[in-house]
Amino acid sequence: MSRRRKGREVNGILVIDKPLGITSNGILQQVKRLYGAAKAGHTGALDPLATGVLPLCFGEATKFSQMMLDSDKAYIATARLGERTETGDSEGAVVATKPVPENLTPEVLEPVLEQFRGDIQQVPSMYSALKHNGRPLYEYAREGIEIERPARPVTIYELELLAVRENELDIAVKCTKGTYIRSLVEDIGEALGCGAHVIELRRTLAAGFTLADVHAVPDLEAMRERDESLDGLLVAPDAALSMFPEHRLSGQPLVSILNGQPVRILGQAYDGFVRIYGNEGFVGLAEALPEGEETKLVPRRLVSDSGKR
User: How far apart are CA 291 and CA 162, in angstroms?
Assistant: First the structure.
């Protein structure tokens, strides 16, 4: 006999303003309990030190969490100059100190920041969740074990200096998935010759959502205390998939897609994932495969109620 999942069916995305000092999974479990949801997941962890945009997926939306994880991100970070720490942020012990160069002005800093714009190679932090032999790197780091990490390609689309103080920098970063802001700040510190670590980090963009879209957990708790429904705060799964082109189907091609069968279309040069819509809304994601003058749409992720469409 199959076990019934505890909780009710909840479908959609809720964008949370992750608070300081708690893990992403900790917030996920809090919000999941507030909704009484059977199934939920987040779209890429933020460090306990970090705050800001954290999309949470419920029910059918979890089918698209990997696409959201793969999206570009943006952050505002404050770097403390002159100190390197074990972890690359203020949670770790200071392991080295050096004098901060005098007269750090935007004009002096600009050539340094320019080195890190565009396509770069980045060595992930030992205090990251990347896995080695099935264990996250941070577990090895806490045991004092150093694992060799190959540099990985990432892209820094934007790197802007927001403010400079005696021993601190505020920077805004927009980057590809897999970019470690702690590593970026450490590398900037090395380029300045004094070392650096992150003391504040706020994510401002993830999966197309910004700080204008976030909800605070205390506000959710207050709504529950007033016995107000939280479901109206959810957005549909396709709200996080706007990076993919949209294609509408009807008739037999729509029926075929809903039955998990590929269809061929003419006149559309798609390549990669495509959002598919039927007569009544979002159906799911298909992968577009060019085949001469035709494009084959292969269903990859369909929402479970799409049969009604």
Answer: 48
For the segment 9-26, what is each residue's pLDDT rounded down to a tens digit?
A: 999 999 999 999 998 999
118 class by beta-carbon count within 10 Å (0-12 exposed, 13-18 middle, 19+ buried): exposed
- The candidate with the shortest Cα–Cα distance to 192, out of 126, 247, 124, 111, is 111
Is the torsion defined by CA of 139, 141, 147, 149 positive or negative? positive
Q: How many CA atoms lie within 13 A of 213 on its CB side?
A: 19
C-alpha distances in Å from residue 215, one per residue of 53, 54, 200:
9, 10, 20
Q: Provide the token pair at 86.
A: 């074990």
Its sign, for the CA torsion 120, 123, 129, 131, is: positive
> Residue 54: CB partners within 8 Å, gap ≥ 6?
15, 16, 17, 18, 24, 27, 42, 43, 46, 203, 206
Cβ proximity of 285 and 300 under 8 Å: yes
Q: Tell me how far apart the alpha carbons of residues 12 and 240 are, in angstroms, rounded to a whole number.
A: 10
Quick one: pLDDT at residue 305?
65
CB atoms within 10 A of CB 151: 11
Write out the H or E segment, with its range, that includes residue 308. Answer: none
Note the pLDDT tens digit of each residue in 200-252: 999 999 999 999 999 999 999 999 999 999 999 999 999 999 889 999 999 99
Over 110-171, what HEC string results?
HHHHHCCCEEEEECCCCCCCCEECCEEHHHHHHCCCCCCCCCEEEEEEEEEEEEECCCEEEE
221-232, pLDDT tens digit by residue? Answer: 999 999 999 999
**pLDDT at 1 (0 to 100):** 44
C-alpha span between 152 and 87 (Å, rounded): 19
Catalytically active residues are 47
